[in-house]
Amino acid sequence: MTLGQCATDGKGPGMEPELMPKLTAAEITEFLDEVFPQLRGQMVIEEVGPMRALLRMPIDRSHLRPGGSVSGPAMFTLADCAFYVATLAMIGCEALAVTTSFAINFLRKPAERDLIGEARILRLGKLLSVGDATLYSEGDDRPVAHATMTFAIQSQNLG
User: Which pTM does this prediction carry?
Assistant: First the structure.
């Protein structure tokens, strides 16, 4: 699955320039390596696009629970990070975005292989980013989890 399957490429008619991402996947990766070094190597930003992000979480034994299923905390982390990346891509690194609301539905047992998280922003304002993330096992189009979330956006220059 690629981001282009579900999203406009931002080059078509009607795509507003302000809806284009401010940051590339490489720029966000560099920023996250600096501010969240503990996440380094845990996820790969595959793509960012207008109001969207696609991440991959390489799954290893540390992500598994008894019975060989990918754990809920691992899926939560991927969904949260995917939405964070989508939000950062749109607002840039000059602002902070923190999770204020998060709900996840686990739909089926994920396969013991990489997880793909596709996040999309449904509403982006000056103070809130609202959207969702759908998670898939690599190579399977059936979702394994779906999350909805809201992030508060705060300027780093505010006291």
Answer: 0.85
Phi and psi for 118 in degrees, rounded to 5?
-110, 115
Question: 3-state SS string over the chain?
Answer: CCHHHCCCCCCCCCCCHHHCCCCCHHHHHHHHHHHCHHHCCCCEEEEEECCEEEEEECCCHHHEECCCEECHHHHHHHHHHHHHHHHHHHHCCCEEEEEEEEEEEECCCCCCCCEEEEEEEEEECCCEEEEEEEEEECCCCCEEEEEEEEEEEEECCCC
Burial class (CB in 10 A: 0-12, 13-18, 19+), 117: buried
Matching residue, tokens 């690194």: 93
pLDDT at 103: 98
> How is domain 20-155 classified at the CATH fold level?
Thiol Ester Dehydrase; Chain A (3.10.129)
| Residue among 94, 97, 13, 14 at smallest CA distance from 53 | 97
**Spatial separation of the C-alpha atoms in residues 78 and 72, rounded to whole Å:** 10
Residues of the chain where predicted confidence (pLDDT) is lower than 70: 1-18, 156-159
